[in-house]
Amino acid sequence: MISLEFILQSVDRWLRDRLGHEVAVAVEYVLVGLFVILFFAVLGLVLVFMERKVSAWMQVRLGPNRVGPGGTLQTLADTIKLVSKEGLTPAGADRFLFNLAPVLMIVVSMLLLAPIAFARNVQLWDINIGVLYVSAISSVSVLAVLIAGWSSNNKYSLLGAMRSGAQIVSYELSAGLSVLTIVVLSGSLQVSQIIEAQQTGWWLFRGHVPVLVAMIIYLIAVTAETNRAPFDLAEAESELTAGFHTEYSGMRFALFFLAEYANVFVASAIGAILFLGGWMPLHLGNWDAFNRIMDWIPSSIWFFAKTFFFIFVIMWFRWTFPRLRIDQLLELEWKYLLPLGIVNLLVATTIAVAGWYF
Amino acid sequence: MNASLETTLQSVLAAAPVPVQLTAGSQWPELVVAPDDWPTLAPFLRDHAELRLDFMFCLTCVDWKTHLTMVYHLNNSSCERVVVVKSVLDRQQPRVASVANIWRTAEFHEREVYELFGVHFVGHPDLRLLILPEGWEGRNPLRKDFEDPVNMIRL
Amino acid sequence: MFKEVLAEDQDCLTLNVGPQHPSTHGVLHLVITLKGETILRVDPHLGYIHRSIEKMCESLSYRQFIYVTSRMDYLSAHINNHGCALCVEKALQIEVPQRAQVIRVLMDELTRIASHVLWWGAMAMDVGAITPFFHAFREREMINEIMEETCGARLTMNYMVPGGVMYDLHPNFQRRVKQFISFFKSKLNEYDELLTDNIIFKQRTQHIGVLRREDAISFGATGPVGRGSGWACDVRKRAPYECYHQLQFEQVVEQAGDCYARYLVRMGEMRQSLSIIEQLIDNIPSGDYQAKTKAVLKLPKGEYYSRVETARGEFGVYIVSDGGTTPYRIKFRSPGFSNLSALDHMSRGHKIGDLVAIMGSLDLVIPDIDR
Lengths: 358, 155, 371
What we know:
The structure holds 3 protein chains of 3 kinds. By secondary structure, chain B is α/β, with parallel strands linked by helices. Chain B has helices at 2-14, 38-47, 106-117; strands at 21-23, 30-32, 55-63, 67-75, 83-90, 95-97, 120-122. Chain B is elongated. Helices cover 47% and strands 12% of the residues of chain C. In chain C, the strands form 3 sheets. A 3-stranded antiparallel β-sheet of chain C has the order 1-2-3. In chain C, helix 4 (98-126) packs antiparallel against helix 5 and helix 4 packs antiparallel against helix 11. Chain C starts with 12 loop residues before the first strand and ends with a helix. Chains in contact: A-C, B-C. The B-C interface holds B 25-28, 54-58, 60, 62-63, 71, 73, 77-80, 103-105, 107-109, 112, 116, 128, 130-134, 141-142, 152, 154-155 and C 1-3, 45-47, 50, 52, 54-55, 59-60, 90, 214-215, 217-222, 231-233, 238-239, 302-305, 307, 314, 316, 318, 320, 328-329, 331, 333, 337-338, 340-342, 345, 370.
């Protein structure tokens, strides 16, 4: 059967046979780098198109439908426009930091791809503290936002960046706590082992209410962390025009834009790995026939289906809810989500220690 | 109803602190008051138990070429009791007391009249141009002798 | 360029909101003084779309000047035209035929619904929900099509003329309005589901921008803003014009005075307008749609004032005539101008996000304010 794992192993073997171990590894590094960049480009195109179609569907309109079949090439056309646009730097801006911010933002999103398991045994880097790595790296993105807001020499950008700083730092806690719930249950920080632990069933089904609660908190927290509506206070179009990226144009704006979607993808992928078993197919108890059919579906399809389900939910949020105010946003985190997350973690730990999960 | 309002006004104005001239008006009873007496009359009209003209729905000015007339349309907030107050101002040095502290809506309306007619409102909290851009002080577009060769087209 | 507001405190930040800003809905310029995110002061600078309509009207005849008023509050164009026509009719003592009166009221109420529907979408967008805007436009489009059929225009109708209306109703009018009524009733419930009971929306609007009743009166804040503060200020009830005194409808009044109260007032008014249309749509009397008037109108010397209730509040037309064919002086009392003057009072001490919600709940139309 042709799977992603099989293809990659064949490529690896072919390279090793031709070039020897050291050179093959070097070539593979380059290939992985190219893959990440290419993946990002495709991801941006797909997700932007998906967002526009989803929003159009919710807003009783058609969405892009002119460029290419069914409008599929619209985002490509937009990308070409953005690339060919002039990137302005406002007078009085800190040139170095102003140019650094979008690059930092996109680099952070790219780094986050490393521990994600796209299919069975397909992972860029199975680091033994994978989940911790994701939490640590994703908090660097707040730096990029703060730099962008500060260096723009624009009051709207500054207000947006300050909001974003408060917001991301706060919601990091809740996201971390809900991730910990799964770590406690799985007994590992390593992504591959977390997925292995869900061999007999996804944590969402096995972990009782605490995992469900953790998943809801996780979804809310990552929506806030990725600055998506209803928590898009850093951009807050109707209040701060475009918040921290008000002054950006052309490709530098496109990098922010791309990073937002990449972050949504990474957050959804981590969510799928933690709560829905990543690439692990759906298995139901002793129904062997059913389980075999499920196994027959390639693991990469499982992974992307789950991830896109989460992405859809996050988009659904965006096109349904009004935006919160900054104090209400922080209130929600510190007064409700964080205490709930702590109690939830305690309950989950009890369950894990006593072995009460299925 | 108009007649009863007029009789009420007659009795009320007999006790007014300043001399007021009452006429029937074309639509609503009209009071004519000297600009100097207006700041005394305004709170009286607003607070008088029988009138309570606490809702100023219009404030404007008319340029009669020889003089300016300030026109205030007052009403009671809970029932229809419209009274029009007029005050004749000198066209060269138009000055009248501001009523922005009595009817707060007057703050914006007086700023508008200030820039369009050049009426100076004494005691206005913040008498600046509102609609016109800076540099228009002293040029009052709604006066009859205003000429703007660029932007005005005579039909 | 503008006189800077001198902050008492060096920590204050002066922020220009507008003239180009997504939530000022036009070219309104607010200079706000902030401390952190808290608003200390809002100073509106108007005039970016000032056309001096009052001056223009001084050289237009009594038939022509009505067209200009469509360009003021363009979302209540019919009602503005109506106010002007009423004023001229009052001066000339023209008796408007029954049919014309009913047509006028029907058009006014359709306009009110169209305006409130658009406001509903814009208000939702101001607080960050984008989807309602598109839903609102779907319903508004139906009204616009009805208007287009009868009046020949979608936005600046110029349908009301002194003595009645310009043309008779289109044969499709009744059928399409009935279609709209049944369609819109279900959609109103959908609006409630989507936004009215949404907890985030409630948090964003309740206890925000509170305007007490006495302040509303003092600021002359009429329309849904005044009624949201518990002040029954509907001109249709206070000083009925046309056939409003024969109609059954409630004046929607809320006591809270916050953004949510103003929201509820407008939602209630849409239902009331629907009920008015339902009462009239099957009872349009036959007869003339326009009274016979002279080709050139000359108003007798004097002063005339007429008031109507637009979607935004009390709209007044004050005509001073010297007996000629053009007005000597015209003053338009626009509701938005007075409502805007309360903005500073309402938004002090709130956050930037609240300012946007308050502006949304005031339903500002900038050409109406600038004139």
